[in-house]
Amino acid sequence: MSETFKAILVSRDTEKKQSVTVTDLTDADLMEGDVTVAVEATTVNYKDGLAITGKAPVIRRWPLVPGIDFAGTVISSSHPDWRAGDKVILNGWGVGETHFGAYAGRARVKGDWLVPLPDGISPHDAMAVGTAGYTAMLCVMALERHGILPDRGPVVVTGAAGGVGSVAVSILSSLGYHVIASTGRNAESPYLINLGAAEVISRDELAQPAKPLAKERWAGGVDAVGSHTLANVLSMTSYGGAVAACGLAGGMDLPTSVAPFILRGVSLLGIDSVMAPKAVRLEAWRRIGTELDLQKLASLSRTIGFDGIIDAARDIVDGKIRGRVVVDM
Ligand code: NDP
């Protein structure tokens, strides 16, 4: 009999009511792919929370094993780039949305979707970074490409105590930026200062409908929140600045005007991690491997087991998770 492994399965009944169960699967249950990986660590991202709670239509194939990212070891491969024993990371590509994902002992995926685990970091560390942290790095790289370097002035990070935010604060401060962290959880100020924030502001300052232009406060930003928050961040960005927008934790709308763009030359940089080309992923993970402070990474993450995934998924959509949650399988 083939080996079984535990998996979380999200199903839908004929009335489209969603349910979540823990079940046993075998290799024969996995979807098509040329590489089978033993999942050693995964994580709970905001998108995983939306998928498991059904709060947004993340899952588009039923039933599905959720989980958008994992790190682990190749068990078998018919892909030329990978051999049994290789350590790999997967982020996105529709895994956990349309393809069986990370919340199972094994995953079978396309070899083209995988990147090598950088030297010096463990599968656990890679998932402390996870898709949230890799996206934070994509945001930082976009700001740099636009010339927003530390000497241009402060940068703001919204949703700072969340996953993307915490890693963004950590990376930006390590690179020498003056980081202004915006959070709705004032009690997390010491945590954010410990990660390297130079200032902590209340999310309330950015929550009201934005004026077309407001006092210039920062040269750039990383926004994980969207809606009025992003509109305010844009209206407060100084001449020629840029904001990397990656998230919608506060809403998917963007009630802004063209004023920041046409009167201050501000740029809005869209960030997508799911379909990002392989070369960009390799560069992001190379930089994570060499530039991210592992002590800070440990301080912004906590570890749970497979049995804690469903509760953590509910907590993240309620804004109750600080930093990152790593799942050791
Ligand atoms: P988290 O839940 O860990 O962080 C989101 C943070 O946003 C919260 O911690 C909170 O920060 C803040 N927040 C939550 N609700 C509100 C609200 N109503 N108004 C204002 N602020 C709010 O999620 P992640 O960091 O994992 O993801 C952040 C966002 O980025 C999500 O929307 C996610 O879908 C998106 N994302 C996008 C990716 C892409 O490819 N573009 C990839 C990864 C994530 P605080 O308590 O500090 O205020």
UniProtKB/TrEMBL annotation:
* Source organism (scientific name): Rhizobium loti
Q: Which GO terms describe its molecular function?
A: acryloyl-CoA reductase (NADPH) activity
Q: Which NCBIfam families match?
A: oxido_YhdH (TIGR02823)
- Residues annotated as domain Enoyl reductase (ER): 17-327
| InterPro entries on file | Acrylyl-CoA_reductase_AcuI (IPR014188), ADH-like_C (IPR013149), ADH-like_N (IPR013154), ER (IPR020843), GroES-like_sf (IPR011032), NAD(P)-bd_dom_sf (IPR036291), Zn-ADH-like_protein (IPR051397)
A Pfam family per the record: ADH_zinc_N
What name goes with this protein?
Acrylyl-CoA reductase (NADPH)
